[in-house]
Amino acid sequence: MGRCIVVTSGKGGVGKSTITATLGVALAEAGAKVALVDADVGLNNLDLVLGVESAVAYDVSDVEKGRCRLTEALVVHPFIENLSLLSSRALASGVSQRAFAAVISALRRGFDYILIDCPAGIDEGFHRAVSCADEALIVTTPVPASVRDADKVSDLLSAYRLRRVEVIVNRVRGDLVLKGEVLGVGDVGSVLRLPVVGSVPEDDEVLRSATVGKITDRESRHYRAICLIASHIMLGTSSLYDCTAKYRGILGLFRKRAR
Question: Which residues are CB-contacts of 164 (< 8 A; sequence separation ≥ 6)?
């Protein structure tokens, strides 16, 4: 049976959907069979991030209402055969908790990992997504407001029987960390009292890729950081990407001044 991991956050705008998409790519390229589920019914964008929006014919609500089979609603990525998406189109009606759980249960039988892109906030959609998961990844940025919201989500997750709850710190500016202007990854972990399993740098390439609906460059700092998270999930490794490395030394001094 596949592992179901919900990717959540306290607020929107922290890069949760991009993290979900690129983590799915990294797991699939490592040989796992991965299903991405967009649980943000009505405000979905995973299809855009993956660049497969034109291939979406059905969504999770169509499966619930019997208009198609689950296999028909799944969109297989054209270049990554181990990666599939179950979308929720912008005009999709609400999906019941029971129906959503049945869909996730069916996906477990055919995939190694199911990543649920959870709606931001703590409303019904949040609880619908989390209740189906075995594990949770909380995405935050290294600023106090985002960390505080992540802490609220952590408290809510404690009501569920999740095997593990871990943190990904996204959009880390290494130069600002070294200057003490934003929280370091260790600081975020201490505040949340949770293990940090990912440190993902701010990367202009991700912004360009997301805009044109393409997967991020495999050589980018963002993707290398995501691959370390995928290794943690699959193998239990504990290496974090060092977002401050490029800003150390003589060359780092010039890079900091150039920002």
Answer: 135, 136
> What tens-digit pLDDT sequence spans the chain (259 residues)?
899 999 999 878 899 999 999 999 999 999 999 999 998 765 678 898 898 989 999 988 889 888 999 999 999 999 998 999 999 865 455 678 898 999 999 999 999 999 999 987 777 889 999 999 999 999 999 999 999 999 999 999 999 999 999 999 999 999 999 999 999 999 999 999 999 999 999 987 676 666 556 666 778 899 999 999 999 999 999 999 999 998 885 444 554 555 5
Which residue range(s) make up the domain with 199?
3-258
Place of tokens 């299809």: 47
Residue among 246, 229, 232, 245 at smallest CA distance from 169 = 229
CA distances for 194 relative to 24, 138, 150, 161, 185, angstroms: 23, 10, 11, 16, 11
Tokens of 233: 């999930």
Give Cβ neighbours of residue 220 (< 8 Å, ≥ 6 apart): 203, 205, 206
| CB contact set of 162 (below 8 Å; sequence gap of 6+) | 130, 133, 134, 135, 136
Burial (CB count <10 Å: 0-12, 13-18, 19+), residue 104: buried
User: How many Cα atoms are found within 13 Å in the side-chain-facing hemisphere of 131?
Assistant: 15
C-beta neighbour count of 254 within 10 angstroms = 10
The domain tally of the chain equals 1
pTM for this entry: 0.92
CATH code for the domain of 32? 3.40.50.300
